Amino acid sequence: MPHLDPTRPVHVVQLTDAHLFADPAGTLLGLNTRDSLRHVVAQVRREQPPIDLLLCTGDLSQDASVASYEAFRELTAPFAVPTRWLPGNHDEAQVMAQVAPELVQAVTDIGAWRVVMLNTAVNGATHGFLEDDQLAALESALKQAGERHCLVCFHHQPVDIGCAWIAPIGLRNAQALFAIVERYPQVRALLWGHIHQTWDELREGLRLMATPSTCIQFAAQSEDFKVSEEQPGYRWLRLHADGRLETGVERARDFEVKLDFDSPGY
């Protein structure tokens, strides 16, 4: 990890839920997921300063194929920065590790911060769960963080976001997560994907954030499965040495969303 000037913030970008296929022509609801990711990457490069770290928070693939992960790696290669991946419910952690073993590290120290990547995926299921080894790894990473501020990342949402259909496929043991992070005041924020929409709230001083997909979006506050025609997007973060965090969500404004509801969906 390169040495950073401690007087400036760490510049981070989060990409999530790309849902790439082995087939370059693969689509969700008629939207080519490689094309949308390509547009998001171009948008980041146009409007963000050079970034220090790229966080990719699950469902990078739709079919868990080697070819899809290789495509994701190729499409994000223009950033040429340290990158970290974690698995979502559509991913296969072993295949991810096969394609990019150096990108699946659980702990990354950068500037005055420690970034912890957790695996909430459950084999054969859509919901999330933190197994004992993941909870132990989190506890260890936080205990050994020293004076570093901490950002904890995973895939499944740990809170109710107001979408009834998404609630059952969230993180089933979120209370175990919060029980740990609440013991460590240096944890400044939790960051996840999965919900294909923006989320940003404070819980007793802890910042909770989710980010739009780089492909199709889910409609906010929906009782049943419903997609939105909002454009794909990403999140930027500025991690300051004093523990402050600035963040925002941007969308690929030049990408035209044309959904085909008669084609295969999510």
UniProtKB/TrEMBL annotation:
<dbReference type="GO" id="GO:0004115">
    <property type="term" value="F:3',5'-cyclic-AMP phosphodiesterase activity"/>
</dbReference>
<keyword id="KW-0479">Metal-binding</keyword>
<comment type="similarity">
    <text>Belongs to the cyclic nucleotide phosphodiesterase class-III family.</text>
</comment>
<dbReference type="InterPro" id="IPR050884">
    <property type="entry name" value="CNP_phosphodiesterase-III"/>
</dbReference>
<feature type="domain" description="Calcineurin-like phosphoesterase">
    <location>
        <begin position="11"/>
        <end position="197"/>
    </location>
</feature>
<dbReference type="Pfam" id="PF00149">
    <property type="entry name" value="Metallophos"/>
</dbReference>
<dbReference type="InterPro" id="IPR004843">
    <property type="entry name" value="Calcineurin-like_PHP"/>
</dbReference>
<dbReference type="InterPro" id="IPR026575">
    <property type="entry name" value="GpdQ/CpdA-like"/>
</dbReference>
<keyword id="KW-0408">Iron</keyword>
<keyword id="KW-0378">Hydrolase</keyword>
<dbReference type="InterPro" id="IPR029052">
    <property type="entry name" value="Metallo-depent_PP-like"/>
</dbReference>
<protein>
    <submittedName>
        <fullName>3',5'-cyclic-AMP phosphodiesterase</fullName>
        <ecNumber>3.1.4.53</ecNumber>
    </submittedName>
</protein>
